[in-house]
Amino acid sequence: CERGKETETMNNLKSIAEVIDGDVLSMTHQVICNVVAPSYNEISDVVTKKIRKLAGIKGTTTLNVISHKPK
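and the corresponding structure tokens:
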């Protein structure tokens, strides 16, 4: 995100329903957040249509995490 806009950017991200939590990364001008949606396509839509359109966002990286619970 833009330098000095980390807290504002994090607050804007938290206003998106699919963003369930997030943090500001110290000294990097970056924020990280968890996005939950039923499918990869819906996550992609959240990133491209909501997150990337927020003021202060300079770029995004998406990492898909698949949780495996032991039986």
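(Above: one complete record from the training split.) The beta strands are 19-25, 30-35.
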